[in-house]
Amino acid sequence: MTPARPRPRGLARRLGAAAALTTLALTAVACSNSQQAADSSGKAADAVSLSDQWIKAADSGMSAAFGTLTNNSDKPVNLVAATSPASATVEIHETAPDGSGEKMMRPKAGGLVIPAHAKATLAPGGDHLMFMGLKAPLRTGAETPITLTFSDGSTTTVTAQVRDFAGGKENYQPSGDNAAHGG
Asked: What is the residue range of the signal peptide feature (predicted)?
């Protein structure tokens, strides 16, 4: 039987230090991954606020919501959808010239991008949230919730006050056979 060779003390210390560093590194990676997961869940919704929000009073059919979206993050944020219990559907719309130069309201392809540390305005005659298929009249002074959905899947719900607004020739009723609206 061969006697056991004693280990040099330096080797044992180095192995112990290597094991400790490996454990520390794995812990750091796990914490980093957890932080990234936490940052990515709700990130856009946490970074964006909607202020001065309101919705146009209407008896039936269609209406629109307006306000100012502010992105407080270091990255652009993309609003891709909205919903409200006040209407069957809500679409992100823009006002743009048609082929003849007339302004038309239409769904905004790809949603609404809010640049980093910037604002995007939802306003009559411009970008807005189009409420289609109102479930009940929207009466002046009432409030209605609107849930905003961002490209990362996060959501936030805001409340908009219903206001009277004569408008600048906005027509929130369907025109023709398509979803475009006269403006």
From this structure: 1-37
